[in-house]
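User: ok so my PI wants both of these folded by tonight, can you help

Assistant: No problem, let's get them done. Here's the first:
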Amino acid sequence: MNKNRYLKSIPNVISSFRILLIFPILLLIYYAEFKLALFLFLVAGISDALDGFLAKRFNWRTRIGALLDPVADKLLVAGTFIILAWLNLIPLWLATVVVSRDIIIALGVFIYSFVYEPFEGDATRISKINTFLELLYVLMILSSSAFSLPTISIINFIGSAVFVTVIISGMDYIMSWLRRVRAQKINN
């Protein structure tokens, strides 16, 4: 039984490791050390896939993991978008839209949890696609800064896809919360 408890914590350790990588990644980007930043960002992205796979495949899900994984993702995405916009490597408006969506989601979860009950729920399919595209976009920006690849047209295409999925997933979350609030009012 104890062994299982330790195994269930592996995804949490991986998410914590991803959080620890954020500051060095941001620092490396700031100092234009794009090759090393790209490498660490890839490690962070792989860790995101790995912790999710382990949690689902072996049912190593925990309450802390349900909070830690999305927090790690949001901090990584928001941090990299902010620093890349600060350095004029991505459009400020895109960083603003991405970070604003994450703030709105975090506030929604906090308010719902405070007013009604602890928020339970997995990321929606469109939100997972959005997060993947955001990570891919940052990866491409770092790769372009380090190696001049991929082309600007590919980067712009992925940036446009990020914008579209940010809007769609943001609206999807808002509609989901409205349905939950309505259900809470009906049940009370």
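One down. Here's the second:
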Amino acid sequence: MISVAGVRGIVGDSLDPSIVARFAAALARSLPGDGPIVIGRDARVTGPMVRLAAAAGVNAAGRDVVDIGLATTPTTQLAVEHLKAAGGIILTASHNPAPWNALKFLSARGEFLGPREGSAVRERFEQNRDLWASWDKLGVVREEKSALEWHLERVLALKHLDVSAIRARALHVVVDGCASVGGFALPALLERLGARVTKLDCEPNGKFTRELEPLPEHLSQLGATVRKVGADLGIASDPDADRAAFVDAAGVPLGEEYTVALGTRVALETQKGPVVTNLSTSRMLDAVCESAGVTLHRTPVGEAHVVEAMHAHHAAAGGEGNGGMILPAAHHGRDALVAMALVAHAMRRGATLRALADTLPRYVMIKDKLARPDEPWEGAAARLKRAFDGWQLDAADGLRFARGETWVHVRPSGTEPVVRVIAESPEATGTRAIVDEARRALAAPGR
């Protein structure tokens, strides 16, 4: 699957070493300048093989590789920026299951390629055009071990944080590292913030023990551990640690939509400015922005879209409701470490996580998905428009229908062969009803 989110596939099936190497070479030949390409990876068991193939492709295209090893997605983004590299490749399939892996391409700014840049890489790959350097122009690989330290320094230096007050609070945090890179990056940050850390699934071995998205239904073990050890809160990441979700001291998940709402509220206390999020993010963020007196802009789903709009609007904060907090003062990318630091700052004077969450308006959101219909999208879209006739329509990314505080967003996924149906309203029955209506409209006639 090729999209604004990168190139994803099942290793040994749709994603083999030759495809990895060719895509890596296509990126290397498409980026301007002659600097190196940074490669970082999550802890998937296929990661070492994919890293070798990607590095070979970059070297064969005539560029050097800086290998930072196991690293979070935001760590890799920051490493590109720190090293003034030509770009980067993050090897992670994010929330996709273990058989999947992916290449996510970064520009020299350490940001995901936009649609135009990504299309150029894809075109070069598909045409198999001008990929390989001559034998005497091949690149080399060097290792770099300091990338996480650069990341930690950037977060701890944020003007949004009162680090001394956070350390004095001496939080006790349970970290669910999803058997990947968040398992060492989040504890490293928390220890610098004076927290006591209890680790859960923090060995980065890629042996996943839960579903990978940090959704409430996947965090029962984290909640139980928080209760057992009497922690102040728990945090869970996805395999590449660009997303974070929290559970309170009672072990009850807040829901990943709270991450960007809580983080943005803290960010706006220090720096007022526009906020950007995607069309599928909770209206809690609307309330945060209204309270702060700032404008909220919405974009199609995908970090690249959000970041592009953040640059355009000179945003002070933003992110995606899947747990992806973006703070431009750190860097333009989703970051679980930034989210953790902002929440720790909010708790510095003794507030509990649950008390902070309860100050936000309460909505009920349902995130559903179903197999993509065999018919062209236009047929399903027409039925959806009839079903939600009279609702406010936004067609920038699939179809989003809104009426008052109620909305539903239906879109083909760019990362899985599914159609996503996300809806929100003040009441559970209302949300369930509009999800069911959308599912009926998506069903092909006669089914």
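Residues 428-442 form the longest helix (15 residues). The chain is about 35% helix and 20% strand. Good luck tonight!
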